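Structure tokens please, single chain.
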Amino acid sequence: MAALRVAAVAATKRRRRKLRKLPWLAASVGAFAAGDLRAQSNLEFRYLFYQESGGRTAVSNPWLYLNQDFGLKGGQLSLLLGYDAISGASPTGGYPTADAVTSASGTSSSNTKFPMAAYNDTRKSGTVAYARKFGAHLPSVDISYSVENDYLSRGAGLTDAWTMANGRGTLHFGAAISRDVVTPVITPTIPARVDHDKSSNAAALGFSWIVGERDLLDVSASLTKLSGYLTDPYKIVPIATSSNTAPEIRPDTRSRYAVVFKYGHHFSDTDGALKVGYRYYWDDWSIGANTVDLLYDQRVGTDWIVSPLLRVYTQGHASFFSYQFAEQQTYMSSDYRLSAFYNILGGLTVSYNIRRDLVLSVGATYQFQQGQDRVVPSTAAVPLPLRAPLDDGEGGGAPTTVSSADMTVVTATVGLSWRY
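Here you go.
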């Protein structure tokens, strides 16, 4: 699950006058500008639907966000409440199989199957945060809690934003911790419910700079240390043969690093804004990842904003990932989330000002994902006269390779925001 983090930074009146000239840019280039633009209270409701292809995971996620502004001396109090209804199926890590059949006309076809485990779960979450300006600083503190059928998470964070250089620059930094409990649901391979502890300690540091009246730049870095139970209890790995499996085993520590660059430019002639982001991630599990984001906000008339989005993501595999192991190892996983793959996402969001204080937004995204670690499925037992090599789709007779990371994903969102 992904966690939503909200941060705000105050600035001088001089900086506010500059940012009013490019509101669509500052609103999403970085969290450092959010506090200036939201100088009043707001209530927002949003609903997200997420669906993976092939009958995999589906998520229905309504959430409610309240930000109450008590003025300069009273600070801001925010509350985020979320609910996730999760269903579908997920690959277990088992080796894929395929039925290969040759018809009377000589045409070859195959039906690849990944071992899947069906599941249903719900997640309830809440976050409370408070921020108040003290001189050039805007410290904030937040407390979060979420619970699932097999997972309990409790977290807290402390951040500060220090405005300098007459409001042109902001140094933002913070730390967060979480103390979680993993309690796997009883299955044939998990005979009893046992609590496992998992902890996370994170720190982040960044700097934002108003390059000009139409340009913003933000650079940041983060470090997260994980320890405890990091294994997925429901995943298996094939050993020696596709039918011989064992539970996956991951290291009990993980260090995660990331650097992020964000740049935004406001086009005064078209009243649009381009935001470009790049993130490089690496960890001591040997995974490296690159993310490039392009978002363009275009005002249409006085009441509409159209925002197309493009994101490209690439990832390498963990040092202990494989679809099949020759023998038992200290650490091993066949979870496609630890494999090498790439993901391309395109989306569009349209916002409409129903009235000055009420905004309706509707959006959708489509993702195409393909794995780079690929294997040839084992052929299921079929009568010998019907058995044939799997074709590459081009008539060459080469075996088809597959990855459990292969899938498409669609999301749809609708939101309503009221400023008061």
